[in-house]
Amino acid sequence: MSSFGAEIVWTRSESEIFTDRRYSRGHVWRFDGGVEVPASSSPHIVPLPYSVEDNVDPEEAFVAALSSCHMLFFLHFASDSGVVVNSYSDQATGEMATIDGKTMITKVTLKPNVTYGGNPPDAGLESDLHHRAHEACFLANSVKTEITVEPV
Question: What is the pTM of this model?
């Protein structure tokens, strides 16, 4: 089987005491190929200025990863079915709640908006492509979060 990884780097500023919990949560995710993504805790979880609002937070990345996985499988199955996709965009959202004392993302809703070249698939085929993509997505298969797909 395959193995995947990322390097996560955070460094305390010399001016930060740290034990007072007043330190920056800004950090960097480094991926193979040299891509670096500025990351932080969410300002919804850790208040500014200790979060970096412009950076990606783990909750956003979780939602984006699920959406990306679904999209890649959708494109694969569409191509196999002879369906030409011109564009795919998704306004994915995640909902957080506390269950049994644990805070978690309990639901992710994908809202793909797909445009097609030539003849678009009928509603049944499009629904089937989304269903197959959801069933095949490695990440969807790895989490207990409820994931729904509501094509636009």
Answer: 0.93
